[in-house]
Amino acid sequence: MGIEGAAESVAVRWARHGVSVIDHPLVQHKLTLMRVKETPTVEFRRLLREISMLLCYEATRDLELTATTIETPLTTMQAPVLAGKKLVFASILRAGNGLLEGMLDLVPSARVAHVGLYRDPKTLTAVEYYFKAPEDMHERRVIVLDPMLATANSAVAAVDRLKERGASDLRFVCLLAAPEGIERLRSNHPDVPIVTAAVDEGLNSHGYIVPGLGDAGDRMFGTK
Ligand code: URA
């Protein structure tokens, strides 16, 4: 079986668990470049922005449309426009911001929420230090952003907090997911579908995704 066939069966398998694996060749190619340890910060950021647009495309695939009457230079027609809920992109700081820019390129009118969580290096649990979100979360589709779904401690804490604020229609978008993180997020929040570019083998003893791409925040911001 060629690499396309293998990727397709991964996507089909994970779809049964509420996970959309975006096996589009452009996404897979760009992700490979991001994994390479020599890829410099400037390139890493550019690739992340590009991939995030493609992930956004998938995460918004089921947005509702309504028909409106418009006039083209030739005639009048009924044409589709977005209807229903407006969007909020909820960035889990700081790495979530790397996905945010590409999302806003595609949906510039979306609101943005920020959830500041850091991972306690000893316990790997999520500790909140910042939270700011629009008031009308209950009326919006919320797309939660974090490039790496590893232990899912941050993801679960962020979704808990967003639901507390009234959100009830959520998606989780990441670049890479570990099976452990998927299992944890889906068991805590089975109503939240996951969109990712790949599902990797698993976590190492430090909670890093393997083979992964390292620390996404460090790689996008050039820190160590
Ligand atoms: N966060 C990262 O940035 N990378 C990982 O591999 C896991 C969590």
Automatic annotation (TrEMBL):
InterPro entries: PRTase-like, PRTase_dom, Upp_B, UPRT, UPRTase/APRTase
Family matches, as HAMAP family: Upp_B (MF_01218_B)
Protein family per UniProt: Belongs to the UPRTase family.
Residues at which uracil binds: 209, 214-216
Source species: Pseudoxanthobacter soli DSM 19599
Activity control summary: Allosterically activated by GTP.
CDD domains: PRTases_typeI
First-level EC class: transferase
Protein name: Uracil phosphoribosyltransferase
GO terms, biological process: UMP salvage; uracil salvage
Reactions accelerated catalytically: UMP + diphosphate = 5-phospho-alpha-D-ribose 1-diphosphate + uracil
Gene: upp
Annotated EC: 2.4.2.9
Pathway membership, UniProt: Pyrimidine metabolism; UMP biosynthesis via salvage pathway; UMP from uracil: step 1/1
Cofactor(s) in the UniProt record: Mg(2+)
Protein function: Catalyzes the conversion of uracil and 5-phospho-alpha-D-ribose 1-diphosphate (PRPP) to UMP and diphosphate.
Domain Phosphoribosyltransferase: 21-223
Protein residues bound to 5-phospho-alpha-D-ribose 1-diphosphate: 94, 119, 146-154, 215
Keyword field: Allosteric enzyme, Glycosyltransferase, GTP-binding, Magnesium, Nucleotide-binding, Transferase
